[in-house]
Structures are given as structure tokens and as C-alpha cells.
């Protein structure tokens, strides 16, 4: 199978703690500029990924805010079948992340690999403190996690990879 395109999408909105996915995508767009075969964009809801011309040969990396997996700023990577219960289940995105990933599976797109990177949000009490840019330590952890997946050998790209903490 010929190598496909890589789509890196930040999920969320421009408001509140949910903007972490968008801030990550905006930062990664600049950090990964010039990399061939890569589209970096923001999505208001997971199903918006179908607005792009995706195929079975393509790879998908989603970055989203998460809650309850560690201290604020924790970066964790998950395979679709290893999403912790509750991650992506409460969604401001319409169809939740898990349901969208089930649809992706049923349609047979992104067979070359799917990864979800979650960034732990501040507690609800501290939501007003969300920055308008990624703090440097968080950006470094995010870049490390993204590059680890982008540059992984073919066998590490497939579904079923489990999760890793960065």
C-alpha cells in the first residue's frame, strides 16, 4: 500500500479550557512547517475530519483537551482502543470522539494509523487561567509526543498501540 497523507487535527474551540487542542494545533502548524505530506488544522468537532479528502492510506493524529488523567499540562498518547473511560465521552463537539473513531473504523479510513494525544486541562476552578499560547514546557512535551508518532516505524503506526505518557 502506498504511503498516504498525515492529518494532525486539534479539537476544541477558541474558548476556555477546550482551546488546548486548538492552541496545540496552531503551535504545531508553525513547529512542523515545511514537513511534506502533513496537514495541520483545527476542528470544532471530531466529525469535521471528514471535510478533508481522507483515505485508507492516511494517518490521523488528534490532539484534544482531557480531564482526570493527571496534573494540568500532562500529555498522554492513546490508540483508539486504549482511550480511558470518560476521555472524549463528555464532548462539546457534538458526536463524541469515541463515536467518531468508531465511524472512522466502519468507513475504513486511516488504516495506516490513528493516535490521540490528550493534554490535561486545568481544574474547573482554574479554567479562567487558560493561556492564549502554549507554555514552553507543555509545547516541548507535545512536540516530543507528536514527533515520536510521526517518525515511528511502520509497525508502530497501527491501531492497538496502547497509551504512553510524555
TrEMBL record:
Pfam families: HycI
GO biological process: protein processing
GO function term, MF aspect, one: enzyme activator activity
Annotated SUPFAM superfamilies: HybD-like
Domain of life assignment: Bacteria
Keyword Signal: no
Record InterPro entries: Pept_HybD-like_dom_sf, Peptidase_A31
Keyword DNA damage among UniProt keywords: no
NCBIfam families per UniProt: hydrog_prot (TIGR00072)
Name this polypeptide is given: Hydrogenase maturation protease
Organism placement in taxonomy: Bacteria, Pseudomonadati, Pseudomonadota, Gammaproteobacteria, Oceanospirillales
